[in-house]
Amino acid sequence: MVEDPICDFCSSSEVRWLYPAQSFSGTLIGIGDHEVKTQEFNSIGGWAACNVCHDLIELQDIEGLITRALELHSVPRSQMNTLRSAMRDYHSTFWETKGVPEAFVG
Question: Residue 2 domain-assigned?
């Protein structure tokens, strides 16, 4: 069963754009239950985006994109800086390899 796509930046179900990007793997570092946790991840192929995140991407507003995701996920202020840094690292390969977006028809 294929799940409905979500925005890879803010998790909105209103996906309207697909950005081609190279696949990559890494380790995401974050905070959970008052301790630092790591998680291995794989990003396979392109990234989906809603209209709001697409606009931020086209403006190259990396910090605005990260702020949107953190606010929509109700991240506690005490974890904001650590997660902001982790997201900046995680998104860096997307920014380095993203292609021209295509409208999503789904």
Answer: no
Residue 3 phi, psi dihedral angles, 5° rounding: -80, 155
| Residue pair 18/104 in contact by the 8 Å Cβ criterion | yes
Number of domains in the chain: 1
Residue 9 lies in a domain: no
pTM (two decimals):
0.79
Write phi, then psi, for 58 (nearest 5 degrees). Answer: -65, -30
pLDDT score for 35: 61
What range defines the domain where residue 20 resides?
A: 15-103
H/E element, 89:
helix 77-97
SS3 62: helix
Residues 24, 17: Cα–Cα separation, whole Å:
20
